[in-house]
Specification:
The complex is a heterodimer of chains A (about 90) and B (about 575). Chain A is about 30% helix and about 20% strand. Chain A is α+β, with helices and mostly antiparallel strands and about 90 residues long. Classes of the chains: A alpha+beta (about 90), B alpha/beta (about 575).
């Protein structure tokens, strides 16, 4: 099962969003990988903070998520939500 | 010894006086060469590593809680990242390989972390900060393994100015602003973790001084000017006195007035409940902008009426004597929220956002928010005011007012306790500024949002560094838009406030008073300075300054006028 998602948070997959992403990945049993669309590097373990942050995925980049396991769909839903939710403070008045 | 100055990047608009205390966390961590591998028991070393990792986890969790209490969730989140790096499978494997090869645990940690640290160091921009995070975690583990003493940053003598190559989030979270007079680091920029912490803690700080810092000796007398970025060593009595003078302007919990008695309300901009206590501590008279987005973001469905009601009552209870201006939900194409199904827009800042959504697709959400607000107005201690964002036309505001009246009527017929708050709008579109007189006749207040107003008046995106020169509220065009708004309210009962970066710039206080603002709302940290400046402002001189700036043709002229006035006041 796979899904392509556009990254919304201004900071990209960085610090806080990355942390939430990894946490969400580890809360599920499914094995999930993440890959930056159009980059040379292959897919990496979505449950590894090191691997996820070193993708260097920025705001508006597309990433492909692949999940295998019982709760694959739930895992993808949760991860998509992290990637498509802006951080509080991304925009000011 | 004569006075010397080092320059860096100012992180807070505060200055502090004290003496240098060097923080060199790496020093205790020098390791001897590893012993021969056959002298090492890999199983025992693995156990030592696991124990160190458990302790590191506990330490990080404690520090996360401390950071959460002191500076809020957002800053504390960095510890979540550290915790995840600590348990990262890839790093665990890298260290494990070294343990298998027969290295003692502390050496295995050093070697296992080296690859990932190097990887991040080679990347661009903010990714290099992840290398700092990894070094922080590595040093923590090594310290635990070699039993190294940790410099206790939470127990420094009063008046310490901490000097360090860099301060990690865990370091800064230990600094007690009651005791420490400031800090200076060799590395870092305005948006580094250390700088953000400094602002949250209202601590004078200069970052990014460079290698010159290392020549400064322990105990040297120092003035840290977080505004100019100057670090003055061995300051003269004069310099020291001048800095002590500006050293954290006295917090004034009571309202202030100009020297000729014109009261000016000085309030805080607040983005989440954790910031309420800081606003009270810095002496805010109330809240001039309570952003409600935090209630709606990062969740799967909108908050219900009761949840919102509780949040608004909490804010009102924080300011029993003051006013709390709550902004209704301001979302649009730029801040999508999953359950709102926001459309992709070519130009989100000019698209369906703020009141445009509240009167359209999000009408139900708007009604719920208004119900919660009207109920909170009756039950919370302070006075509530509600303002709507992104208004461009009189019809929009009238329609929003009708929604408010209709909600009030519903609550009345249901017999639910409620109160109708002051109702106003943000002046952030040029059309609203031009029509300010029409709006003022129909509202209790206007609040100028200078960040967006500047963006729209100058047609310069606020996030785009290439046009940052244009995105500056000191341009005469923006000043005229502000003046026009104030004039529009003359002769009506409407008060005019300002929320946005401009209101919190202490250099501009006199000008803003002169332009006729009744209220200024800003990040809590600048409130004491702005209150002090209000008290020193003479109304007549301020009006004269405002008149001169309104006649200026360029931003440069405006800047010159402001600089001249500040220098005249000082001399």
């Amino acid at each position: 099962m796979e899904r392509t998602v556009t990254i919304v948070p201004e900071a990209g997959l960085h610090a806080r969003p990355a942390s939430q992403f990894v946490q969400a990945a580890n809360e599920h049993d499914a094995e999930v990988t993440i890959e930056k669309v159009g980059s040379d590097g292959g897919p990496v373990n979505a449950g590894s903070m090191l691997a996820v942050t070193s993708l260097g995925a920025a705001h508006s980049d597309e990433v492909r998520l692949v999940a295998e396991g019982d709760d694959a769909e739930a895992a993808l839903d949760a991860l998509e939500e992290v990637l498509s939710t802006p951080e509080a403070g991304d925009s000011e008045e | 010894m004569s006075e010397r100055t080092l320059s860096g990047v100012g992180a807070t608009p505060l200055s502090g006086v004290g003496s240098v205390v060097w923080y060199r966390p790496g020093e205790a961590l020098e390791l001897d060469d590893p012993p021969e591998s056959d002298a090492v028991d890999p199983a025992a070393e693995r156990e030592r590593f696991e124990e160190a990792r458990d302790t590191a986890r506990e330490e990080l969790e404690t520090e996360r809680e401390r950071a959460r209490e002191r500076v809020g969730d957002e800053e504390a989140a960095v510890f979540d990242a550290h915790l995840q790096f600590l348990d990262d499978p890839q790093i665990g494997d890298a260290v494990g390989d070294q343990l298998d090869a027969g290295l003692p645990a502390e050496h295995a940690v050093r070697k296992g972390f080296a690859g990932p640290i190097e990887q991040f160091e080679g990347m661009e921009g903010r990714m290099t900060e992840r290398a700092d995070d990894l070094r922080d975690i590595r040093d923590r583990l090594v310290r635990l393994l070699v039993g190294g003493e940790r410099t206790d940053l939470s127990a420094l003598p009063e008046g310490s100015v901490v000097f360090a190559e860099r301060l990690t989030p865990s370091d800064t979270a230990q600094l007690d602003p009651e005791v420490v007079s400031g800090f200076v680091t060799a590395t870092g920029g305005r948006t580094s973790h250390a700088a953000i912490f400094a602002r949250s803690l209202a601590l004078p700080a200069v970052v990014g001084v460079g290698d010159d810092l290392f020549a400064v000796e322990e105990g040297t007398a120092v003035v840290v000017d977080g505004d100019t970025g100057d670090v003055i060593l061995d300051p003269t009595e004069e310099t020291r006195a001048a800095a002590a003078d500006t050293d954290r302007a006295e917090v004034r919990p009571e309202p202030v007035a100009t020297s000729d008695g014109e009261p000016i309300e000085v309030a805080a901009n607040v983005g989440q409940p954790a910031e309420l206590a800081g606003a009270v501590e810095q002496g805010a008279d109330g809240i001039g902008l309570y952003r409600t987005e935090f209630l709606f973001l990062e969740r799967e469905s909108p908050p219900d009426e009761d949840e919102q009601y509780e949040a608004y009552v909490d804010a009102l209870d924080a300011f029993p004597e003051g006013r709390v201006v709550v902004r209704t939900l301001d979302v649009g194409g730029d801040k999508p929220i999953p359950y709102l199904e926001l459309p992709e827009e070519e130009n989100p800042f000019l698209g369906e956002r703020g009141v445009r959504r509240s009167l359209g697709v999000d009408a139900g959400l708007f009604e719920t928010q208004l119900r919660a607000l009207l109920r909170a107005a009756a039950d919370g201690a302070g006075d509530l005011a509600v303002m709507v964002p992104m208004v461009a036309t009189v019809e929009e505001f009238e329609e929003a007012r009708e929604a408010l009246d209709s909600v009030a009527a519903d609550l009345e017929s249901e017999g639910v306790a409620h109160e109708t708050p002051e109702f106003g709008l943000m002046i952030e579109t040029p059309s609203a500024a031009f029509m300010a007189d029409e709006f003022a006749a129909r509202t209790e207040f206007l609040s100028i949002g200078t960040n967006d107003l500047t963006q729209y008046v100058m047609a310069a995106s606020r996030g785009n560094e290439r046009v940052s020169e244009l995105h500056d509220p000191r341009h005469p065009a923006v000043l005229r838009a502000i003046a026009r708004t104030v004039e529009g309210a003359e002769g009506t009962d409407a008060w005019v406030g300002m929320c946005g970066e401009m209101a919190g710039d202490p250099d501009l206080t006199e000008l803003l008073v002169g332009l006729g603002l009744d209220e200024l709302s800003m990040s809590a940290v600048t409130i004491p300075d702005v209150k002090a400046n209000v008290a020193e402002t003479d109304g007549e001189a301020a009006s004269a300054l405002a008149e001169r700036t309104l006649r200026a043709s360029t931003k440069r002229e405006v800047e010159q006028l402001i600089t001249d006035t500040i220098e005249n006041t000082k001399s």
